[in-house]
Design a protein that fits this description.
The chain is 20% helix and 29% strand. The longest helix has 13 residues. The two termini are 23 Å apart. It is an alpha+beta fold. It is globular, with a radius of gyration of 14 Å. It contains two helices and five strands.
């Protein structure tokens, strides 16, 4: 996770990484016209550059797009909280 946050446990980061590994698209299509909400970059072991996804604003699902491939992936909207939100930071003390 960048920037690194020492308050987030290794277990929380492992859970986040596993969620990305387990994520599956419900639909794959050519990139449509959506407003971009943000971006996610995933660094893969052995890859020269991170894989970048644009996060599209969509009320009904989680849509991640790969502009470099011209594709968008439609995922279950329930995955938004799992894949895009940072792990909970434990309060100090």
């Amino acid at each position: 996770m960048a920037p690194a946050d020492k308050r987030i446990s290794a277990d929380a980061l492992a859970t986040l990484a596993q969620a990305w590994q387990d994520a599956r698209a419900d639909n794959l299509s050519a990139i449509g016209s959506h407003s971009v909400e943000g971006e996610v970059a995933l660094s893969l072991k052995g890859a020269a550059a991170p894989v970048r996804f644009q996060i599209y604003k969509d009320a009904d699902s989680l849509v991640l797009a790969r502009p470099d491939l011209g594709l968008q992936y439609q995922l279950d909207p329930g995955l938004r909280a799992t894949l895009l939100l940072q792990p909970t930071v434990a309060p100090p003390g």
